[in-house]
UniProtKB/TrEMBL annotation:
<dbReference type="GO" id="GO:0033627">
    <property type="term" value="P:cell adhesion mediated by integrin"/>
</dbReference>
<dbReference type="GO" id="GO:0005178">
    <property type="term" value="F:integrin binding"/>
</dbReference>
<dbReference type="GO" id="GO:0007229">
    <property type="term" value="P:integrin-mediated signaling pathway"/>
</dbReference>
<dbReference type="GO" id="GO:0098609">
    <property type="term" value="P:cell-cell adhesion"/>
</dbReference>
<dbReference type="InterPro" id="IPR013519">
    <property type="entry name" value="Int_alpha_beta-p"/>
</dbReference>
<protein>
    <submittedName>
        <fullName>Uncharacterized protein</fullName>
    </submittedName>
</protein>
<dbReference type="GO" id="GO:0009897">
    <property type="term" value="C:external side of plasma membrane"/>
</dbReference>
<dbReference type="GO" id="GO:0007160">
    <property type="term" value="P:cell-matrix adhesion"/>
</dbReference>
<feature type="signal peptide">
    <location>
        <begin position="1"/>
        <end position="19"/>
    </location>
</feature>
<dbReference type="InterPro" id="IPR028994">
    <property type="entry name" value="Integrin_alpha_N"/>
</dbReference>
<keyword id="KW-0732">Signal</keyword>
<dbReference type="GO" id="GO:0008305">
    <property type="term" value="C:integrin complex"/>
</dbReference>
<feature type="repeat" description="FG-GAP">
    <location>
        <begin position="24"/>
        <end position="85"/>
    </location>
</feature>
Length: 194
């Protein structure tokens, strides 16, 4: 009896919950590479070239050398279907030590584009699964990292990884993974502090 009532309630509830499209006449659709998790994160962006929809695809394959499914962020025109193009945040592959040639990080499956934000023309896009090799390059630390545009120039990008320090292990650095989520705030600077 109890199971029958429960099934009936769920059936009525599912019948009431329906999805819908806000615009049924003039809608726009965007898509990304198959298996890229295109749409994992989305943000609205405005710059000198106009308004854009930014879309994260954390498992997209990029042209980064020696990087497998590093992830990407796409810039899509809000009024033109299928107009997405990758934003060139990081075109380099894994980094290597100039002195001894040892690998310094791993960008494969870093989930770049898992979180992103845009505010006042600045974009921040993050890879929470980025791995840095610390302590003589023999320890693997999943520190995460982010890239941001510098000012209104959306073609210049800077990496930010606050967890990439000489300290390592849970007892010093803790479980620090930058970029699980991200946001930007408006900062007002005075003449002395910024």
């Amino acid at each position: 009896m109890c199971v029958g009532v429960w099934v009936a309630c769920v059936g009525v509830w599912v019948g009431v919950v329906v999805s819908f499209n806000l615009e049924t006449e003039d809608f726009v659709t965007h898509g990304g590479p198959r298996g890229s998790k295109f749409g994992f994160s989305v943000s609205h962006h405005r710059d000198t070239a106009g308004a854009w929809v930014l879309v994260g695809a954390p498992e997209a394959q990029t042209s980064q050398p020696e990087v497998w499914q590093g992830g990407a962020v796409y810039r899509c025109h809000p009024a033109v279907s299928g107009s997405c193009e990758p934003v060139p945040f990081d075109l380099t592959g894994n980094h290597y030590d100039n002195d001894n040639g040892q690998q310094m990080d791993n960008k494969s499956m870093q989930w770049f584009g898992a979180s992103l934000a845009s505010q006042s023309g600045v974009i921040v896009a993050c890879a929470p699964r980025y791995v840095w090799f610390s302590v003589k390059r023999n320890r693997r630390e999943p520190v995460g990292n982010c890239f941001y545009t510098t000012g209104r120039d959306t073609h210049t990008y800077q990496m930010y990884s606050p967890c990439m320090t000489p300290s390592w292990g849970y007892h010093r650095q803790g479980s620090c993974q930058a970029g699980i989520s991200t946001t930007l705030t408006q900062v007002r600077c005075s003449t002395r502090i910024c």
